[in-house]
Amino acid sequence: MKNTVGAEGTFFRRKGFFVALYSCLGVVAVLALVVTLANRTDYDTAPQEFAYEHEETLPVGADQVEPYLAGVDTEAWFRPRQPQPEVPPAPESRPTTPPDPRPDPRPPTQPPTTPPDAAQQPEVEAPPPEVPPEPPTPPPTPEAYAIPPPPTMAVTNWTPFAEGDLMNWPLYGETVMPFSWTMPIYDPTLDQFRTNDNLRIAAEEGDPVRAGAYGQVIAVGRNVRQGNYVTIDHGNGWVATYGQLMAGMLVQEGDIVTSGQIIGGVGQPSVFGSAHGAHVHLRIERDEVPINPYYVLAARTDC
Length: 303
Fold this sequence. Notes:
The protein is α+β, with helices and mostly antiparallel strands. The protein folds into 2 domains: 2-77, no CATH class; 153-295, Glucose Permease (Domain IIA), CATH 2.70.70. Helix content is 20%, strand content 22%. The chain is built from 4 helices and 12 strands. The strands form 3 sheets. Strands 1, 4, 6, 7, 8, 9, 11 and 12 form an 8-stranded antiparallel beta sheet that branches. Strand 7 (227-235) and strand 8 (238-245) form a beta hairpin. Helix 1 crosses helix 3. The radius of gyration is 65 Å and the shape is rod-shaped. It starts with a helix and ends in a 12-residue tail after the last strand.
């Protein structure tokens, strides 16, 4: 009896070991099957995943594992999966339009007649001809305003200027500063009020200046007040000074001048007349007393 019980105990212990072993193998097989089915592309769809996620897990006994293992190919679990060939998508079929049996009314196009070499080479515009630059214009010099002297006239006898005679204007222009011997007037160059013993006539640089009457040149010079000047004695105590002339006057001391003779040209103003621009300074005296030029100048013919 003891031996029988011992043998039966040994048998049950062995049977329990195999039951536990088969149970573990069954659980491993089920897990491997679940992983394999989850990785298969055939079951990679939303409804099947949803089904696997919500499938209830039931306990598996030894009587269910043995027949299951008998019909399962365990070696298939360890064989690599064969890649499935990719099937290219079928080309999209488009309906074809049958050709138009009517003839084309347009004339056939002619191929271009351009030679192949000309067609390959692009047209290059010829550069414009180079124009030589013009030489710079030199600044004007006093010689550029030189006034040709009138033909020489042998004047031996001339009539002195007398009371009631009239002198010609040296040139015509606007009065920029009038004669005012007794009343002070504003001088823009000096920026002050003062008396003025001459008449200032606006002009353009280079304009000719003419003698007002017959006379003899008694002085040719330059000073800061009158600039370049010519003084002519017209006789009987009448003396006229023409100032603000350009360098290189056309007369010199001792010359006899006629009425209307060009004696020089308008130059740049001196420092005492710079505010008036180019102009002529005309001073007329009788017995060394300044006289208003308007009293002896003839009526203007340009008005």
